[in-house]
Structure formats: C-alpha cells, structure tokens
Amino acid sequence: MAKKIKRFRKVCRCCGDPFETDRPNIKYCSECAQTQTEENGKNRTEANKGIYSDLRKLKRYNDQHGTNLSYGKYKLALFLGKVKV
C-alpha cells in the first residue's frame, strides 16, 4: 500500500502565483526558487570572503607573534586597537 503524500497549496512570495508542494515550509514556486537560490549563493560567497580573509590574517598574526588567539579574541583585540593589521 503506497503512502499518500499530503499536498500543500501555496502562493509564491516572489511572483504571487499559486503552486502546490509536498513540503509545508516551501515559500517560492520552482521558477522563483531557482533565482532566489542563485542570489543567496552569491551573497553567502561574498560574505565568506571577509571571514576567510580575517582567518588568514589571524593565522598570520598567531604565527608571527607566537600566540594562539581565537577568532573572537582576535576580533575584540582589533576592535580595541590592541592588534594592528
């Protein structure tokens, strides 16, 4: 006996078109979901560049000064002006 899948009727947040899905947390139709994913992926990549840049600077700082600062302690020291990049 096959399990019956519950279908949900939704309205796309982007274009306003009605669509059906089998997952209750979906908010965009298939066409808009693809564009949303592409846009979000670009934003994440750009944000990660800053984080990875900071981590490289932290590693370089720790290597040069013989310290073992964590990321949070490094960011605090930068904010307080105790560390110069």
What this model shows, in words?
By secondary structure, the protein is mainly alpha-helical. It has one domain. Helices cover 54% and strands 9% of the residues. The protein contains two helices and two strands. It has helices at residues 30-65, 71-80; strands at residues 8-11, 18-21. The protein has a two-stranded antiparallel ribbon with strand order 1-2. The longest helix is centred in the middle third of the chain and has 36 residues, at 30-65. It is elongated and about 65 Å long. The protein starts with 7 loop residues before the first strand and ends in a 5-residue tail after the last helix.
Structural class: mainly alpha
State the helix count: 2
Structure summary, number of beta strands = 2
- Radius of gyration, rounded? 23 Å
Helix content: 40-55%
Contiguous low-pLDDT stretches (5 residues minimum) are: none
Helix and strand pattern: EEHH
Describe the sheet with the most strands.
2 strands, antiparallel
Beta fraction of the residues? 5-15%
Gross geometry: elongated
Largest sheet: spatial strand order? 1-2
Mean pLDDT: 87
Tell me the span between the first and last alpha carbons. Answer: 66 Å
Count of discrete domains? 1
